[in-house]
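Predict the 3D structure for this chain.
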Amino acid sequence: MNIFLKLFSGLLILFLVVFPKGGIKVNEIPITHGYILLGLAATVSGFINLSRGKLFLLNKNQIIIFFCLLGFLTIASLSILFNGFSYKQWVISFYVSLALMPVIFLYILLPQITQINLDEVLKRICQAVFIVSIYGIFLFFYKITTGSFIEIPYLTVNVADVGTLEGKHISRGEGLFKLISTYNNGNIYGVCILMLLPLYDFIERSRWKSSIVQMSILLTLSRTAWAGLFMYHFLKKLYINKITVKQVLKWMLSLFIFAVVITYTVYYFNLGGADFVFDEKLGGRNQFFDDLEITFFPSKEYSSIYEMAYLAALDMFGIVGLILFLFAMTSPVALYLLGKTPVGNIEYRKSILLGLLIYLFVATSDGVMLYIPTMVFYWFLVALLITKNFIQPKTIEIPYKKG
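Done. Predicted structure below.
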């Protein structure tokens, strides 16, 4: 990449991964530096594609994903149009997350993603993940020690949110707060970093660095993030590694260690023991079941795709809407499993797929789908999955020789 592209891609990674919340709010709608840069990148790329006659050159995978998304967006739009909506900002977030982001990554930026040096870009992303993990751990203990957060307006926190972090559903009681890093919310941080974790471990190959990243996820004190971390280790052993007696024994040992770490974390921070881990109220989410109205077609006013994404899709858009939503979100995974996506470095592709599967799993509990920058990460991984570009095996070091 030339110097300008390196600088711009570096800034894009910086403000989407390291400082995703930095920016301002206009009528309660966050305008972040990362999304502005992403919009600029999409605009320039669109003009470049148009000048090269590539703007409307779509392959089969893009077309299939497009129509799956279109089906869901059509029924959702008709529902919003005829049944109304509660909050304008959640309507905007809905279309930005589930319409604009897929268009940007899968159609506008895909030609550029196909041509860039992925080795260099993904290594930068891994560096960014490590940085936010280190900072998150530091901020977690800084808060415990001093009783306050470090807030840098326009950078680590939206200027409109300065002084309000403690009210963002991050408290675990008695002065204990979730690890939030620069994401301002433990669940958002946990879900986003979990998506990138399989790819991070594939590229970085350092045990101690991976342990730090995973420790930051544990310190979110989020049961959703813990479940996602467990699923990562389970699927990695089952899907990426070859199944042998040795691997099964390693998996059992990993499961035991994971249980010990979770138990220690729960009791060390006095979270309430087993009652916290197996909370019957699902962290207050049981109320969604009480308010759920199951219909065939959408019949109620749109409010949001709240924490439990699939339940929310059923509640907001009916059985038909839920089915179309599942098609929209899982179509890239289905294309890969059916062998329709480009081939390349198999372990690399599986790592990308694993990140998507982890998100689809945690979305049953808390997908934070409409919050910045969740869908940026999801649709970026989808773009990596369907592009012909891939990391060359020769650039990857021998596993676990560093740390």
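The mean pLDDT is 85.
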